[in-house]
Amino acid sequence: MSIVNNDFLILFGVLLAVVAFLYSSVGHGGASGYLALMAIFAFPVSVMKPSALLLNLFVSGISFFFYYKKDFFKPKLFYPFAITPVPAAFIGGMIPLENSFYKIVLGIVLILAALRLFGFFNSKETDSTKMNIPLAMGIGFGIGLLSGMLGIGGGVILSPIILLLGWAMLKETAAISSLFILVNSIAGLSGYFMGDKTFPTESFYLVPIAVFGGILGAYYGSGYFSNKVLKCVLATVILLASVKLIV
């Protein structure tokens, strides 16, 4: 099934904008949400991964721009996550996954993403502790590899880890995650293309929709906007998609 021939394209577009809005508001690109929607609307696996990376690239870039303007970005907190994840994501993008295995792994990742949105991995903001550079680089490599393989930016995994370890405050974490997602998405797409895979050009039709939602979400999220209830709804959708993938 192609994207433009989807009978529920309008509904998909509306939900896509909502996902981009919600994710960008917390400094994420939204790949896990896009993948969940594509799973629910029965998009083929060959379309899901590259499309999610493409949309992720645009929305995470927008999110980073807004958080950067608010002076939440701290370069010294980001560079350990920029050294190892980028080559790892590039390698992951070249690794082809058998469809059933891909769906199971993606389903598990989406469950983690949903739990994150429900608040299970949230921690209270405390004074930041000194970052363990070797540990940060190791974590970054693992997330980068997984990101490239699955077509996600990895922010939904990185954010709770940074907060739980106390390496940054919430807004700083959002800024770090948005740039982390951006560079990982670029690396993942590069690896995908290096693997001689055909890119679904129809995915570009979805970019303006995601950009619209991303701009609004990043604008409010970088300020004081709260969307706790909507995030719980989104988490429910992701959980439904993960069950659909795994079962």
TrEMBL record:
The chain crosses the membrane at residues 34-65, 77-95, 101-123, 135-168, 174-192, 204-222. Keywords: Cell membrane, Membrane, Transmembrane, Transmembrane helix. It is found in: Cell membrane; Membrane. It is a multi-pass membrane protein. Its main location: membrane. The keyword Cell membrane applies. InterPro entries: TM_pro_TauE-like, TSUP/Inactive_protease-like. Belongs to the 4-toluene sulfonate uptake permease (TSUP) (TC 2.A.102) family. PANTHER family: MEMBRANE TRANSPORTER PROTEIN MJ0441-RELATED (PTHR43701), MEMBRANE TRANSPORTER PROTEIN-RELATED (PTHR43701:SF5). This is Probable membrane transporter protein. The lineage of its organism: Bacteria, Pseudomonadati, Bacteroidota, Flavobacteriia, Flavobacteriales.
